[in-house]
Amino acid sequence: MADHGGKDILSSDVEIKGSIKFQKELLIDGKVEGDINSDGVLTVGENAEIRGEIKTKSITVYGKVHGNITVGERCELKSKCVLQGDLKAARLVIEEGATFIGKSEVTTGAYSAKAAQRPEVVRSSAPKERFRQRIQWPIRRLQKSVRNVRTAASSRWNTRRRRVRSAASAAVLFLRLHRSPV
Fold first, then answer.
1. Is residue 65 within 8 Å of residue 33, measured between CB atoms?
2. What is the reported pTM?
3. pLDDT one-digit tens code per residue, 86-101
4. What's the start-to-end Cα distance of the chain, in Å?
5. What is the Cα–Cα distance from 41 to 60, expressed in whole angstroms?
6. Which of 60, 72, 69, 80 is nearest to 104 (CA)?
7. 42, 48, 38, 36: which is closest to 11 by C-alpha?
8. Which helix (H) or strand (E) is 2 found in, with range?
9. Helices 167-177 and 126-156, interaxial angle, to 10°?
10. Which of 89, 100, 142, 151 is most buried, judged by most C-beta within 10 A?
11. Among 15, 42, 163, which residue's Cα sits nearest to residue 111?
12. What 3-state DSSP class applies to 145?
């Protein structure tokens, strides 16, 4: 018999209907119909066909899985595998040639039965304050320029006091006043 490095093995001629729980490492190469729950590492062999929910720490899939997979750490879908179901994992590796029909979700690494709470986003007001400080100087400079143009326009044209209402009209008036005579 081949040495598989301390893994428990369900060979290709084994068929199980019911739930499976294990602690360390398990290689399934047979047929399983039911849920698989573990805090260990699961390997789904090339001849394996699993129908049911899988919740484990880590999984590598070479065979067929029909059901949802929730993984705390790493999920690998090898080149000839077939996965029909949704996938939740912290890290996901999909090789070229793998078939995945479903949706995937990146998680924070916890696969508990409780729904993961959404982390609260805390934003500092420091970036806003820095932006406000950087933008205030050009705005003040522009306001000062508009005031200077308005003052120059009104003092030059004492007989025709034009009221300047915008920076654009003040700039046009300023250019008219300082245009060289032709």
1. no
2. 0.57
3. 999 999 998 998 999 9
4. 106
5. 8
6. 69
7. 48
8. none
9. 40
10. 89
11. 42
12. helix
